[in-house]
Every structure is written in C-alpha cells, then in structure tokens.
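Collaborator request, handled under Task 6.
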Amino acid sequence: MPEWIYILLLTLGAGLAMPLGGCLATIDAIKPNWLNEELRHSVTAFGGGALLSAIALVLVPEGIVPFSVAVSAGLFLAGGLLFMFIDRYLYQHKSAAGQLIAMLSDFIPESIALGASLALGKGSSFLLATLIAMQNLPEGFNAFRELRESGRLSDKRILWLFLLLALMGPVSALIAYFWLARFEELVAGIMLVAAGGILYAVFQDIAPQVKLEKHWAPPFGAVLGFVLGLVGFMMQH
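Structure tokens returned to the collaborator:
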C-alpha cells in the first residue's frame, strides 16, 4: 500500500471519531436524569484531559525541538492570545463554537505532525492516529451538545458538518507529507501555537463545564483522558 494512502486511512479514521461522538450525543434517553448529567460532565472532563495530554505529550515536546526557549515561549503565548481573540469574537457574535474550535485546534496540527513524521521516516503513526481518535470522540460529543443547545442547527446538519470536518485531517496530513515536512520549523511552530490555543480553550470553555455539585466522577474523567495520552506517549517511546 502506498504510504500516502496509509496516511489517508489513518487520519480519516481518526476524523470519523468526531461524528461518532456526535451520534452518541444524540442519545437523550439515559435514565435516571442524574446519570445523564454526570455522564455529560464526565465526557467533557475526559475531552479536557485528552487535550491536555495532546499539549504535554505531543504538541509541546515535538514543537520545541528546533527552537530556543524564548521562541518556544513566544509561539506558545501567541497561540493563547490568538484563541483569546477568537473567543472574544465568538462571544460578541453569540456563537457556540468554542468546543468545535478546541476540537479542530488539536486535530489539524496533530494530523500535520502525523503526515510530517511519516515523510521524515519516523514511526508511531498508528499510535498517534489512535490518540487523535480517542481525543476526537469526546470532543465530538461535547461540540455536538454545544451546537445543539445554540438552536441554530438541526442534529442532522451538525452531523453532516462533522463529517465534512473529518476530511480536514487527511487533507492536513497529506499536505504535510508532500510539502510541509521539508519545513521543520514551520510544522513545529504550528504545533506550539496550537498548544497555547488549546490550553486557553481547556480553561475557558471546557474546565468550567466539568464541575458538578456533589459528584466526583467528572474531574476524574480528566485524569482518565490524560492517562490515555500518557499510555500512547509511553508506547511510542
């Protein structure tokens, strides 16, 4: 099998976890009500933990390699500032796309990293794709619920949107494989900017939704999400 087809299949599979998470979010018949509420908060926390693992174990370690401390810190801060301005824009325009942006902000850079790593002859692509998929599943769940609550899109349209967004992974990975891999600093910079933006999104949009009075499973979901990333990282190394 040509390597570019392998990349296409890996990233497409990881991307399809988004609409799969959306499909799970359409299930409203979970009883009793307290279980439904705690499940939603736990899934949100799991997604936050998975995003933090992407920052700590993939984006930052790979992104800082070609840069000095000052440049690495500057790019990370730039990502946080960029997402802060995006968040303010979304708020001013009454948009409910915070979770959606958080989802894409790690899916696209990690897909770029996957394509570039294969082009440079590095392994672990299957494990990285698995980690991306396990992040996209809870993120798709949460983004679907957020968009549905806005009342602007029907369930069917949201799922079609997620299917289209799933294609951004293969496109990003193939661009990195055929072109971006030769520009190591550019790929690393994208990863650091994304890491700063994701960290902002976690504490602005995701963490505040986790806390649930008199329930302790949701915060533990964040631990489980991070452990998932840790296992993937240690298996790669």
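The cover message to the collaborator said: "The chain has ten helices and no strands. The chain has a mean pLDDT of 77. Please let us know whether this matches your experimental observations."
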